[in-house]
């Protein structure tokens, strides 16, 4: 059985992110998409619009000296415009090491991601890493 189109879209997005292919990511995001980053760290907050989201992705690399890495582990869909991912993050920053599970809840309209809401297994560890 073929994978659901929303799962395919999300997998393509993770692949583009890992490769640093911001133009592919831009094409997948709605013009007014919002990416919500939880916590109280330097990158926490709501990023509205393609430029703001892509700049935040660029800053992930900058803040971690290029060590930020994500491994997609699973994609779940509901067939009604939502996809949920489970992934594993690693990075090094200012003498700290991140080794954390997380995920993103995606809202998808047509073939565009409109809302990305990040979740993490240990918000305190994430806040400490990004403080």
TrEMBL record:
Ranges for domain SnoaL-like: 10-114
Q: Which residues form a coiled coil?
A: none
> CDD domains of this UniProt entry?
NTF2_like
- Matching Pfam families: SnoaL_2
List, alphabetically, the InterPro entries matched: NTF2-like_dom_sf, SnoaL-like
Specify the protein name. SnoaL-like polyketide cyclase
Biological source species: Streptomyces calvus
